[in-house]
Amino acid sequence: MSSQRFQCDQNTSVLCLTGAGVSAESGIATFRGSSGLWQNHPIEKVASMQGFIEDPNRVWRFYSERRSDAAKVTPNAGHKALAELEKKLGERFLLATQNVDGLHQKAGSQRVLEMHGNLFQTRCSRCTRPAFEDTNVYIDSDLPGCGRCHEKGEFALLRPNIVWFGEALPDDVLERISAFVVAVKRLVFLAVGTSGRVYPAAALVDLAKRVGASTWLVNAEAPENVQRFDHFIEGESGKILPDLFANAIE
Ligand code: OAD
User: Fold this and answer.
1) Residue-by-residue DSSP string for the chain
2) Which member of 41, 79, 104, 116 is catalytic?
3) Is the pLDDT of residue 196 over 90?
4) What is the pLDDT of residues 29-86, one digit of tens each?
5) Ligand 1 nearest atom to the CA of residue 38, by list position
6) Is the per-residue pLDDT at 1 higher than 50?
7) Report field, pTM of the whole predicted structure over 0.90
């Protein structure tokens, strides 16, 4: 662990990237690791368009279970600490999350970019109608079809509004992150609870370094990309973040 303090003066902005580890202490399973979701559910079967085409029931069952799990839990101290930091920094804070559980927003975070979509939204697998709020679960029930396609005499299944492997991120997410990074005077980049295995999220640390950011990682264990960070704090985010931010603002 670095002895240097996490500090933000009036000229400092913070870009935070979060992953599944942040929600682990709320009771949401992470993806990788011994009890991770990808142990029991092959990625390509439930998180790709190919998997959806092959077996949409399996995919909807998987995301329905995720919806049910996420609906039952509440934000933990890590989510809350990030929301508090945002309150203090205002415009000088941006949170890019790979999480789809909505817990950051429940904790009060407002400047949140959801890189991988949102579990409680549904969209059409075919047409470009905007995604809409949806808390329904589809387990052993008829799968939902798109009403708009139906009106045109076409048939298309609805799908979860999740970015699957091989798919592009939502339109403006990377632009907004880049715009934030280039506009700030001094940047601190903080990644929390992420294995750094999925791009482009895993490349944000490099983007931050290119503009001279100081880079921090808070994670339960050292991930493969730990060397790319100036500071690594090993531990659970719910325990580490409140202390890390306690005296961060000058
Ligand atoms: P991973 O499951 O790959 O990594 C979670 C990381 O969090 C691991 O390195 C854990 O050691 C760490 N961790 C676990 N509990 C923690 C805690 N309490 N505090 C801090 N760290 C903790 O999850 P992501 O990196 O988020 O994409 O995965 C990235 C993407 O891969 C996900 O968004 C998902 C997945 O496939 C899609 O589904 C599109």
Assistant:
1) ---S---B-TTEEEEEEE-THHHHTTT---SSSTT-HHHHS-HHHHSSHHHHHH-HHHHHHHHHHHHHHHHH----HHHHHHHHHHHHHGGGEEEEE---S-HHHHHT--SEEETTEEEEEEEESSS-PPPEE-----SSSPPPBPHHHHHTT---BEEEEE--TT-PPPTTHHHHHHHHHHH-SEEEEEEES--S-STTGGGHHHHHHHTT-EEEEEESS--TTGGG-SEEEES-HHHHHHHHHHT-B-
2) 116
3) yes
4) 999 988 899 998 999 999 999 999 999 999 999 999 999 999 999 999 999 999 999 9
5) 36
6) no
7) yes
Q: Judge if the beta carbon of residue 195 lies within 6 A of ligand 1.
A: yes
**Tokens read off for 137:** 């679960």
Q: Is 116 among the catalytic positions?
A: yes
